[in-house]
Amino acid sequence: MNYKEKIEQLLLSVQKPARYIGGEHGSVIKDKSKIDVRFAFCFPDVYDIGMSHLGMKILYALKNKRENFWCERCFMVEKDYKQVLIDNDIPLYCLESLDPLYEFDMIGFTLQYELSYTNILSMLSLGRVPVLKKDRKDLAPIVVAGGPCVCNPEPLVDFIDIFIIGEGEEVNLELMDLYSEVKKRNGTRQEFLRLAAKIEGIYVPEFYDVTYNDDGTLHSFTPNIPEAPAKIKKRVIADFDNVYFPEYFVVPYTSIVHDRSVVEVLRGCIRGCRFCQAGFIYRPFREKSVDKIKSETKSLCEQTGYDEVSLSSLSTSDHTKIAELLRTLADYTDAENVSLSLPSLRIDNFSDELLERLKTIRKSGLTFACEAGTQRLRDVINKNITEEEILSTCRTAFEGGYTTVKLYFMLGLPTETDEDIEGIAQLAHKILDAYFETPRELRGGSIQISVSTATFVPKPFTPFEFEPQATAEEIDRKQKLLVRRLQSKKIKLSTHQDDTSILEACLAKGDRRMSKAVYNAWLKGCELDSWSEHFHFEKWQEAFDECGLDMAFYANRKRDYDELMPWDHLDYLVSKRFLISENKKAHEARTTRNCKEGCSGCGIDKCYGGVYCGGKH
Amino acid sequence: MAANINRPRNMALRVERFDYRMIFSKTGRARFISHLDLMRTFSRIFKRARIPVWYTQGFNPRLYIMFPLALALGTESDVEIMDISLTEELDESELMERVNAVMPEGMHINKVYKPVMSHKDIAFSEYEIRFCLVSDTDALKSFEEYLSQEQIIVKKHSKKKGEIDVDIKSDVQVLSLDKDGEFVRLSVRLPSGNDKTVNSSLVMDGYKAFSGEEYKLIYTTRTKILTKSLETFI
User: Fold this and answer.
1) What is the architecture, at CATH level 2, of domain B7-115?
2) Considering only CB atoms, which chain B residues are within 8 Å of A27?
3) ipTM exceeding the 0.95 mark
4) Which residues of A touch B73 (CB under 8 A)?
5) Whole-model pTM above 0.90?
């Protein structure tokens, strides 16, 4: 009995089997005898999450456009199906061919969040690929990884052969072409890795040696072969308007998290909120033309049959032609009975027209990422929205019948005091007052304000990379203080579990030695860590202890400006000098203007296509 | 989920509707699409094919698609029924062609016509079930023994009562039972309709409980949907 027959029989007994069998509209089937490079695109989480990810859709279609490449999809399986696979001796497989992972030439993981790391080990192991890279001797399979978390890939160096730094649209194909060439002449793994190291944006960790100081900090990080550059520069698509964007999506049968067409309107962010990694690592700010966005929207809607399209970006309203864009898209979506949703809008540039437009498309609720409770602390983090902006938007919204407001905050931000925590409660109560001040005949029936707090996690390549994370005890105290200050039944508070934030901070800022701890934690059964029912912090603590590593050293220690960071060999184009100056300004509660208001000299050259780069506009 | 932009406009219109019945296949990988997901799948198919579908005229306008008879997850069929309403009269063969051009793997429209019978006329389904066992037992003989019991008691899940024992002897009409290579092939007619439905898995799970055997492979196909007088439902 072959794997396919076995799989089909077993699917009769698992939850939502459509997730494990492929065959969706848009999935690409090729004749494998005519393929030079088979690529398994792995999302280290379950199908429902992974299928919502835009990056996978882009790279899937990009690679499959090439006749001699075949890119397939692979996801982490739920515990029930994992057991079925193990009990029946079936390796983890890709959804197009149903072929096991170990048969692929290249296996690529996208690293979207730190808590998915152990799933990578599980997927390799289930797919019968040696988990440790030192145990992989042949050319195939090469395990690569990309995505935002590779900006500090060190905790994964024992498992991943190659990291792809920056944007993947060009470098993925270059890497696959190189692989194809080496494979054809029966080259070795070493040969391939050495040649790959010469490609811009490719980081091959085994070609670097690391030494440490007595206090545990990094002493040096040096290449050990001539092909490996001392600094690996991230890849950027300078001509963003002409970057490849898929004309088709794989349309799932089962419902997934983001089940709609998604069109990317801009990349990068002009804002520079000091806690936000995405705001720095995706720089510079580039956007697509209105025509391009319209034609991409049209072809995707036609191919998928979705009745909803969403615009993807870090901040959609920062598009230089936002009003024209919305008008143009609305003409199309209105005519086609497709609804348009706009996440990531900022309130400070809400024009009347935009608000008018929003009224017609969403009445689900209003969400503000305030992040901090007082103006002082919002200045520290450079989140340039004011209380008055929040309140006036709320008033308008309440008059328009909105009745739910969600507020997002972080606890444990640098320089935070109890006054800032109390400010969160005060702001929520002011919004509540604004609702009750709205004339009864205009406002909706019953108000619900949800306040969500997450624990601040300092991230590499942000001005806060030097900052310590607040300890679990401090966060606990701050949460309790907030609970005491929130007095109304109309205000609901939800707080984020802190243990996961501690682990997130460790993994985000970890060095090479942490790879062993990740491995040990996985051996103890840690996987699906982002699902609270599967998260076991004590196992992680044991794993760190076994490796002689102290979580507090990584999470709660303040770094000096001149400390060598584990990610300093990577160049995300934003200069260290700028990060340091931003950090200093943060401690003085001084804000920095956004790119649109004028260049602040973050270090990115105008050759990378940034709309506002290289001087004042 | 964002609300429909055109809601007010749609609601103001009183749209004439044209009913069509489609007979479709659900085979191969598509047999794992659940009944719940089928609705969503078809609404996207019609959107892709740019079929002028009729929306329900209620507060939340929805595509009008009806599946009178659910097909169990994992069962294949070439005779599934779907009713749909359009806002325009379309030529049936054109409609079929346009929809088939955008269907996913394993799904296909086989016939399109104006509905003749009413859903409540559906009374029976016929299935062909092919299976082989993990053990070396003579599956044909053992299955014959199972069917020839005076009562065929099987466990049935009931929403209200939990798991209950029911006798399905009188409901199981065996049309043929023979060998097909290494497989046993059972052709069977079971009640399926508003009054009573016996799922083919009840029969097959009953055999497992009766014999203690496990299926190595099992393939179930619905082959016919019939009325009380055993006419094909149209």
Assistant:
1) 2-Layer Sandwich (3.30)
2) 105
3) no
4) 12, 17
5) yes
